[in-house]
Amino acid sequence: MVYRIAFETDTTTGRLFEKVLIAAIVLSVLVVIADSIPTLHAHWYFAFTLAEWVFTALFTLEYVLRIVCLRAPFRYARSFFGIVDLLALLPTYLALLFPAIHVLIDVRVLRLLRIFRVFKLTAYISEYQQLGHALAASRRKIAVFLASVVLIVVVLGSLMYVLEGPEHGFTSIPVSIYWAITTMTTVGYGDITPQSPLGRFVTALMMLLGWGTLAVPTGIVTSEIAFRQAREEEAGHPQAHGLATLHLSGCAACGEAHHLPEARHCHACGARLPRVAPSAK
Amino acid sequence: MVYRIAFETDTTTGRLFEKVLIAAIVLSVLVVIADSIPTLHAHWYFAFTLAEWVFTALFTLEYVLRIVCLRAPFRYARSFFGIVDLLALLPTYLALLFPAIHVLIDVRVLRLLRIFRVFKLTAYISEYQQLGHALAASRRKIAVFLASVVLIVVVLGSLMYVLEGPEHGFTSIPVSIYWAITTMTTVGYGDITPQSPLGRFVTALMMLLGWGTLAVPTGIVTSEIAFRQAREEEAGHPQAHGLATLHLSGCAACGEAHHLPEARHCHACGARLPRVAPSAK
Amino acid sequence: MVYRIAFETDTTTGRLFEKVLIAAIVLSVLVVIADSIPTLHAHWYFAFTLAEWVFTALFTLEYVLRIVCLRAPFRYARSFFGIVDLLALLPTYLALLFPAIHVLIDVRVLRLLRIFRVFKLTAYISEYQQLGHALAASRRKIAVFLASVVLIVVVLGSLMYVLEGPEHGFTSIPVSIYWAITTMTTVGYGDITPQSPLGRFVTALMMLLGWGTLAVPTGIVTSEIAFRQAREEEAGHPQAHGLATLHLSGCAACGEAHHLPEARHCHACGARLPRVAPSAK
Amino acid sequence: MVYRIAFETDTTTGRLFEKVLIAAIVLSVLVVIADSIPTLHAHWYFAFTLAEWVFTALFTLEYVLRIVCLRAPFRYARSFFGIVDLLALLPTYLALLFPAIHVLIDVRVLRLLRIFRVFKLTAYISEYQQLGHALAASRRKIAVFLASVVLIVVVLGSLMYVLEGPEHGFTSIPVSIYWAITTMTTVGYGDITPQSPLGRFVTALMMLLGWGTLAVPTGIVTSEIAFRQAREEEAGHPQAHGLATLHLSGCAACGEAHHLPEARHCHACGARLPRVAPSAK
């Protein structure tokens, strides 16, 4: 019964529960962010602490419920979202026990990742998949590209360390590599800048090189997206159907939420899936 | 009669009125901009104030005329351009009554938006539509992309707040998020920069990630534009015809300016449209 | 005879003259650049001044020769390259007469533009044309895009002037607009940065907007280039033929260098063109 | 026998040797990088010096082995990788002999280039080739583009030198050109920024120009990659086959590693190639 409320989003109660949960996650993250602002921290210390404990209690309850309700709790606990759920709780308790690790308490913003779980990605899954496929198809090209960038950045960073030296801010090769990445990606903070004529000449070449290199990942991704789009147009918009290929209720055993509509068994643990309730229509 | 001059751009007088209005809008915005420069403000204070009141009087007259001439003045007053027209007048009067809100007087630059109304977009409408369609078609992809960027920026901003802390300029999580956006978009002001080795390492990863991420919106928009262009080529340039699909005179009742050439009634208020004068040819 | 040497690049002497001229232009620009470096200016003052007068004398001789040899000297003198040729000479003479305008002497770097004339673009004309066509075809789209950018930048610049004010470096609306362009183009100097929380929030939105907007011109140009390339592939590489459509010797009357191979009269002044010498093969 | 171990990666020993070599190269580069950090240099001076000599000895041994084993050692010594292998050794010995050139010792990071040799590019060669072809096909377009950028940057840099002058940091034309490249590539360090209103106006135009220009190389590369991808799709994925077209063992005479699988003679020196051992499967 509790399970149906918490995990089957097809029922009215389940949908309400989901909305409350999303609101709680967003609110708890906003509290963490607001608490980091010194003036707000000073004025609202008590309110923030109270809100933090209320949210932690709520999320703990939800975590325990999931563990209790699911028939394969270990599979859930070891899954990606199970670990995220745990990481969203632990810092508050740990900070109580060991005040020294207080700085790590902001790991709580990882709660934001839980939003993806609650959404169950039903609405946007096909867009994610499309981008994901585009990136996956270009995986090797991107790896080659990144390897080249790392090589160029290490070699040019070391060169600038030799040319400019510690007196111009290039205090070590790692710092020079950091500066080279700053320059090649066109971020250009300006905290470290070349001062010698030769260093500036090499920097000018690096910037032009970075400009050209910028075109390569754009070209790869664009070409991949355009190609995928053209194929989908030909095939009569399978993307539109893609939106319907999600099972609307999760697995009762391990909590896995993504299944094909015709699926009868969970693809993760093999448990039998509940039938889709008519109220889901 | 007055209506015909002010709102029917097909007559010679109407076109002259339109040109005077565009000049007045551009001039009034230039006066606002010039007035903000301290040296010019000191030397030309009287001239700027005079010009401001002349323009405000002119725009007030135009606004009153529109309200009086149109048969459905409320519909106009509540429309987007009606509110822009009002916002272009109000600050001058309000600043006279309440000198304290003087800082808001620069809201007057919103007058620039009125230019779009006067142009009636006849010349560029098809280009706008094409870009608009390209963006609308990619709406969901862009939403997914923005959601991912917000998530990445909040998580990485919080991480950098923990790693660098207030002593290196990361005074709170919102400031760190602002810095993370500065870095990921490759703007890189350099007012806040990481100082610790670990912070610089994470920053280097963020910059490379931002570099790659930059490719995604470019890919989406390019693919969409290329696809649209290819379809138009096949269909025999409907884009060219698109330029002719605008009714050249506005609705006498509510002032709505965009109608199909074959339209007999205003699509916004249903009032009968004037016939296109032969002088519009 | 002198004409044939200076303007007909098909003869051996003409080609040698051309190479000497390119070398002289590049050298004279390098002298201007080197002369601007304080230490070099102090040490090599005499040598630079001498070189400058030698180059000026050479270019003056060339200019006079052109005027004398051509049958329509006025047409040449008023053409784009005629004015560039004159601008490359005048500053040196004027600086002698009026030492006060010494700062304008660096207009001499415009001599670089002459290189394009000497090259006669024979080698790269088809690439230039292709890029030019791609840009021309997207002319209206680019105009719409630039108009939107100007509008956004003026409105957001004024908004930031209101939000941040002179105490944070936003001393006037033009300065704020300059800052807004710096931010939207992701250059981000960091000489002016928002300090107030609200200003930083608006800046973050501007940067994300600028990121997205960056995709639009890229999309337009890429789509145009890809489209052109696809058509050329189908049509059997007319680009390759494009390289041959240049008349290899100029018009004897006005100096215009670009003619179709089958042209019998100059398209600029109507004078009869010389026949292509067999040595041009 | 030694040859088989060091150069034939198809045998088990050969593969082990290769892995050890990659580890040694990466480790030696990490030691060079770590040695440049002042605090680590002070604490681990002895360990780093020892490691450096061990690696140098190892690489010297490998270099000598290659020279001895190959039947055409001169061809190897004069090849690109032969010179890289030598450059990876020399600085350590030279720094011992001439302590004054100690600053050049970081040339040792060039050892990273050796990784490409050891990998023999078997895994990524087709991706490299594809990117290489895309760039080679756009060679002329890129040359035209770079020439235009150089011209724009020299002319605008000189203009800004005249407009801003040495008192605002534009101390010479080369510095102004460096600044112009910084601005056009949207890096924007902020170490040199325009201060005069006219200079800022020109800068704003330059940034918008740079924004537009950025689209051109992206368009060229994207169009090239998309075109290549489309052709490969039609031709039935020759890219996939491309991965198999590498001979898995090098030439015994000159060490050249890239051969077609059906090759019987080395394409570089003509020596007979060893047959592929069954263990390579």
From TrEMBL, chains A, B, C, D:
Pfam families: Ion_trans (PF00520). SUPFAM superfamilies: Voltage-gated potassium channels. The chain crosses the membrane at residues 20-38, 44-68, 80-105, 142-163, 170-189, 201-221. Residues 15-231 form the Ion transport domain. It is a multi-pass membrane protein. It is found in: Membrane. Its main location: membrane. Keywords: Ion channel, Ion transport, Membrane, Potassium, Potassium channel, Potassium transport, Transmembrane, Transmembrane helix, Transport. InterPro entries: Ion_trans_dom (IPR005821), VG_K_chnl (IPR028325). Signal peptide: none annotated. This is Ion transporter. It comes from Novosphingobium organovorum.
